Structure prediction request, 424 residues.
Amino acid sequence: RLTHSLEVAQNARYIARTILQKLKKDGLETYGLEDIENAFISTAEMTSLLHDIGNPPFGHFAEETINKWLKNNVVQKLETFNSSIKEIEDLKNILKSDICNYDGNAQAIRIITKLQRLNLSYFQIIAVLKYTRGAFENKPDNSDSLNYLKKKPGFYYSEKDLVEKIQTTLNIKAGHRFPITYIMEAADDISYLTADLEDSVEKGILSLDEVYNIITSECTKQNEEFLLEIINKQYEKAKKNDEPYQFNMFFTFLRVTLVTNFVKHVSDVFIKNHKAIFEGSFNHALLEYDKTSKYYKALKVLKDISNKYIYQNKEVQTLELQAYTILNGLFDVYKPILELTTNDFSKLLKDEKIDCFISKRLIKRISSKQIVAYKNDIKKLNTDNIEEYNILEFYYRVRLIIDYISGMTDDFALEEYKILHAIK
Prediction:
């Protein structure tokens, strides 16, 4: 993940510099970018380094697994908070929707602001906000002019007030995106062009010759010439080398050629649509904006290959099944903490005696950073309104468990699963 993030940051820096070089022809002052070149580039680089910080162990498959567990185990608990007050019932429905929409992008905002408490400016924080919809809001339909920007959750109810404060301070309309974020997204898309294929060869899923044959076959099938020409050229060049250097040379040449071409393309799209981008209303990914371009067609071929030949591979799906078991097992183990009353959990954090002896042992395993984040959220609650306090306390307690488990690395999650299930 670190290697990927460094690559995305490098691509973002390249895109940002290319955009500025092209805009200089008209004068940067025309676009309000004079004297902030370094900030433009460094913000693109910084947000790209952070873009995957909220991803759980085992990648995107884990997001679905976490949400399924929360839906099956937490929603029914939220249902028990009955009230005759309409505002409390409305809040309950908001939290039910929010808690079942775990997403790495929304978790990133939480990590930056609440868990790691990075000393970032408002500009830097909002640049990480890839999607502009709250996890508690409904997914928009095609009639929404910002439906792409809202296609996934970008922040949780727990960070709603902060996001709104930043948007108000920086004069960013609700649902709109910060301009630099488009660069980060493009840099991420570009870095994935060959990543899956490289991993598939390294892991022995496909051979270099199989990758070449699959790409040429798919390009021919989809009448794609741009990628086909590059592939043939780089394959011939790589084949002149001895094994095992053929594999390295092929992907190195391929990556460099694709990155160079795609950076120029997304930079042109950014400049052409700069008014909507600066406003934050440009409702597309830069790389997917022009679906008639040779770049988009090449991107589609590579995505189709990954879906058809890599993600459907038995070994890959076996790893996903193992991840499903590990994550469900971890959440099941920590479930007793969520079954405590508000009063008992308060006692638990003060190291006072409670009946649930297993929770006393489980709480000791959770990071102090995550517990501090929980306590800081609880401090802000209105203790005079006991019904609201209890439901929100439970919500933040669920967030505490999610923060802990989703913050694990793959290896740590596996090790913790083995320890807690007494597996050697």
